Amino acid sequence: MRGHTALHLGALDDLRVSVAGHQGATVLSLIADAFGGRGHGVPARWRTLVARAAPGSAGEVLRPLFDGGCSVVPDCVTPTASMPGGDVATQCEQLADLSPEVLLAELEAEFGGAVPARWRPVVDRPRQWLRAYSGVIQAVWEAFGPVWAAARPLLDREAERVGGAVVRNCADAVLGDLSRRFRLTGGTLHLPDPRQDTYELGGRRLVLVPIVSGPGTSVFALDRPDLVWIGYPLPGLGQLWGGPPAAGPARADDALSLVVGEVRARVLRAVRAPAPMSEVAARVGCTPANLTHHCRRLEHGGLVVRHRQGQYVRLARTERGDALVDLLS
């Protein structure tokens, strides 16, 4: 990880965790990828949809937010201002009523008397910029709304998964598997960020926000006094790109599947004793490549380990993996 910000969570069993399917967070990721040069991995079809729907001036309008190494999105205009509630339609209404003086005051507080050149057109004509910015957000959401609607079953399933893990005191299994770009080390979550700051959760609520955009998405806000929210790729996102159909929801009585997912639960159960990867793939009923993908994620969470023995690679549960299976079985 080239640069990261560390969020010290404290005792994981004491976390107050919730899930929010927030439209604005998805919009923020989409425009960051399509117009801000931020590689969130949005598939080409969706990126084209967003680019074509937005007004021709969208790139110029959004440039102040994403120009340079760090994104600066004033609180009064960010699509995530209402987190964890609200929707894009309501935010666009609020932007229409927003006083330009509020925006100028935030820019003054952020930059002092030295507003960067990229923000000068906004400072010079704030009302016009607010109108143009609201138009971009509204146009993008009108085009992407049907995709969000199609993602609703996946969003509901993710809320069920996280909720099941928290109730069973398995928040670490969820937090360790949010994204390939995040890393959980003990009680600290490392998030990709060139600013490389350090924050304390300090008893605030932790809101997990599944994002409907791309597998590389990473958006978060760690400085609110009431909560911290972290946006991460919605599990199963590839199914919306024309991938294989979603598996049915895990059985309500299968706690392990609710927490780690059905396929990974089968993998963990298949290695009560160490076994060759080829044998595990046959037991689980997936291809070797698919098994390797799931094993990487389980290794990332400290639940399994792979080691070579002669010409075979063998898979084994770690002590942590054993403890999780025992707890949830």
UniProtKB/TrEMBL annotation:
Residues 254-329 form the HTH arsR-type domain. GO terms for molecular function: DNA-binding transcription factor activity. It comes from the Bacteria. InterPro entries: ArsR-like_HTH, HTH_ArsR_DNA-bd_dom, WH-like_DNA-bd_sf, WH_DNA-bd_sf. Pfam families: HTH_20. CDD domains: HTH_ARSR. This is HTH arsR-type domain-containing protein. It comes from Streptomyces fumanus.
